[in-house]
Amino acid sequence: MRLVIQRVSEASVTIENVIKGRIGRGFMILLGIETEDTQEDIEWLTSKICGLRVFSDSEGLMNESILDQEGEILLISQFTLHASTKKGNRPSFVKAAKPNVAIPLYEKFVGTLSQKLKKQVKTGVFGADMKVSLVNDGPVTITLDSKNRE
Q1: Of 14, 87, 138, 141, which shows the fewest CB atoms inside 10 Å?
Q2: Domain boundaries defined on the chain
Q3: Does the pTM exceed 0.70?
Q4: Cα separation values, 65 from 26, 44, 49, 85, 145, Å
């Protein structure tokens, strides 16, 4: 699994001119799932997300987590995070999981992250054409890949 995490002051996702999810202060996360991903990847990444100390404390230092801040999360499925551009100019998505594999893992990810966050994670719709808006706070943008834990 591959993530792009952006600390935001606000974010939303719109599908067919209807806002599906909206958050205030927290994380807007893009999630890419590949065929080999498992529950172990979900556990590692959701723990990492909840433990990231990228929010300012009372001294202005990045010492607090999303849990400390009682922040929100907007999670968007994003198969293009597994694009390979090694050959030519047209990206290949062969590493991205097909929907029959990706959807159950995506739903488990949302459920596990909601439990750890202690509030419901907002989402888009898997596979839909989505318009994502956000105000990146900082900017702070972090990438994580469960296959590169070292």
Answers
A1: 87
A2: 2-144
A3: yes
A4: 10, 16, 8, 34, 19
